Amino acid sequence: MEETISLKELFAILRKRLWLILALTVAATITAGLVSFYLLTPIYQSSTQLLVNQAKSDKQIDFNAVQTNLDLINTYNVIIKSPAILEKVQQEMNLDRSVSELNNQITVNSKENSQVVEVTVEDKDPVMAVNMANTIADVFQKEIATIMSVDNVSILSKAQMAENPSPVKPQPLLNMAIALVVGLMAGVGLAFLLEYLDNTIKTEQDIEKVLELPVLGSIAEMKIDASSQRKTSREARTAEKGGSVHV
Questions:
Q1: Which of 2, 27, 94, 99 has the fewest CB atoms within 10 Å around its CB?
Q2: What CATH number is given for 44-157 in this structure?
Q3: How far apart are CA 122 and CA 203, in angstroms?
Q4: Residue ranges per structural domain of the chain
């Protein structure tokens, strides 16, 4: 027979395992906070912008040149992160990290139909992030003329060092909020799992559900007060000694 469970029974299960749900939720939130604040290394971010646009002597706009520049941007995005550029950045800044590591720190973005390319660098040192972003822009501007035989890249804005730089990651509050939700979901899931695996019979309703038979009667729990229990114990000890008890 197919088993169904009512909304009231669902709330009863949650109330029964409430301590477990709360414990998992609190533990997950505290753990995420401790890891975010004390274990993860803060990462800072800095960006510089490049403009892909051929310099013109007159003020008229050549739409064919603009379209050509837009088509070249995707190629430029790849060249910026290529060893041809990053090796020179590595040498110029005397970095002790590999080209592959530099590549992982750099993100190149360009908005659709925009001639602006944004180079973003992430590093655990905010000063290093600024210097690396500006160096990449300078090296790319110089080298692209040799690589592509064009001179259509200029630096639109350089990376600047903020007075009080703040890390972009980790984000402790966000991590704690995610951990709270995950811990709550895990607690609820574990509560239902434990209830599903628990096949012990505790009430008359459990008997009816498992055996599919009506309960004809039940023995109520008998409670004996302390004075009666002491009297019964005294009578039992006296009986063992072969004596008699007078009331």
A1: 2
A2: 3.30.70.1130
A3: 61
A4: 44-157, 204-240
